[in-house]
Amino acid sequence: MTELRSVQVAEGFSVSVPQPEDALFSEVEFIYNEIFVERTYLKHGIRLSESARIVDVGANVGLFSLFVKQEFPGARILAFEPIPATHRALVENLENHGAAGVEVVRAALGGRPEARVSFTFYPALHGNSTRYPEQKKINQELIVEQIGPEAVDRIMGGVEVEAEVRRLSDALRDWAPEGPIDLLKVDVEGAELEVLEGLDPSDWRRVRQCVLEVQDLDGRLDAVLGLLDAHGFTATTESAPDIPDVLRQSMVYATR
Question: Rounded to whole angstroms, how far apart are CA atoms 17 and 90?
Answer without folding.
Answer: 8
